[in-house]
Each structure stands twice: as C-alpha cells, then as structure tokens.
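HOLO CASE FILE
Compound: zinc ion
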Amino acid sequence: MKIKTTLLENAYAFLNNSLHFYHLATHKDYPKEYKRYWMFSLVDIVQAMELMFKEVLRRENEFFIYENIDKPDKTVSISKALHRLKNILRIELNQSDEIKIKQAIELRNKIVHFESELDIKECSRIYAILFEFLQSFHYRFLGEELHDKISPEYWEEEALLIEQFKNEFVLYNGIKVHKHYPIEFVESQLITSLKIDGKEFKRIKFGDEQSQYDVYKQSHCGDCGVKEGYYHVLGCDLEICPKCGGQMISCSCNLDENFIIQEE
Ligand SMILES: [Zn+2]
Ligand SMILES: [Zn+2]
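Model generated. Tokens follow.
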C-alpha cells in the first residue's frame, strides 16, 4: 500500500506529533526523564515549519521547492526555503522571528547530530516563540487558522503556549524579547572590559568584530539580538574573545567571572 500525502498534511502531522512530545516533556505529572522528549518536540516543530515554508513556495511556483529548478529532484533545505521566502516572495518577517527561526534550526541540527545538551528553559522559550510564529505565519500565508489543524487532544497545550508567549515576551526596541532581556541587555552595556587569564581586555561590540562572516554584517546580532554598536548580552554565542579572537563561550581562555569591570 502506498500513502500519498501533501506537504501540508505532513506539516500538520509533524506539528501534532510535536505537541504530543511537548505534552510529555512539560506535563507536571510525568517523570523527570520525560524531559528528554523536548528533543523530539523541537525537531518535529522545526520539521512542520519547514513543510509550511515549502508549501508557501510551492503555491507561488511548484519549482521553487527544488534545490535546482532545472533538475527538480532534491528539495531545498529549510534555510534555503527561508531565504527564498524573503528574497523571491518578498515575505516580510520581523527581525526577532527570524533570529528565533535560525536559532531553532540550529538547535534542531545540533539535536539531530547528537551534539546537544538541552537547556530546558531555552527549549521552552524557543518553542513558545516558534509556535506563535507558526500560528501567524499559517494565517498570513496559508490563509487559515492553525488552530483548526491541531488535534483537540492538544488544545490545552495550545492554550498554555499562547499564554506563555503573552506572559514571557515584551516588545523592546521594536523586537519581541524575553521579559528578562531588557535588564540583561542594559547590564551588559555597563561591562566594557573583562579579565581574561589575569589581564584586562576591552570587550568587542557587535559590528566591530572584523570578521568576514555574514553573521557579523547584520543590523542585529543573530543570537542575542543587540543592535550594531552595542555589547552582546553576556553569554552570547557570537561574542568574540578579545584575547584569542575565538568564540568567547567556547575558547580555552579563562574568563574571570568575578572580575567584571563596570565603567561609567
Ligand atoms: Zn550577540
Ligand atoms: Zn579566548
């Protein structure tokens, strides 16, 4: 027997599956070990997003979902689909949504390649943002309420996610950020130097990295969201170590966490 399904049917199947794992990972009555279901929950919601992106491309032109339009066999990756939505279909996504989508894709890739240590709080934040994003994306570009595609057994999760999104996020500087973010951002701007391996170094602001990588040539940091000319929020993946020039969170220099210098 062969089963023929459409992109959208698959997208909804992945979404419902994701909510199933979300339910298992977050329900207070379940054992702690169930937290590992976050992994499947995130992988599946990113998969649902990828399929929705492709459906929007396909509706515009059936060849847009292929990597090479002259050789329509392999379909595009999610990053390329996102790129086409923006650059060919001129779909406007707000900066913070785009940052979160990219973070989610990265997290999915890490999970799939078993390199991840999941930070549950971070999973929960990213999940709520993605869910909200999918709802609005679906409504805007696929013309229907996503709610109608969610199996009634997950309506409770849906309601909780919407609630979480409303409570946890605020608008700051025109972008949607976690409510603790403005404080973290302001605090980080006061820290202009760091002590590394016993010596003091000036921190490198976003945009001053002198790196050829595209991530440093955007208007906002793709990880912590600061604008060009500001210090990254402490712990940002993209902050460069001023001593060795490597990624600060992973380089082998010793950052003195107790010696954070604040200047006027
Ligand atoms: Zn940053
Ligand atoms: Zn270093």
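CASE NOTES: The first helix runs from residue 7 to 26. The first strand starts at residue 169 and ends at 172.
CLOSED: yes
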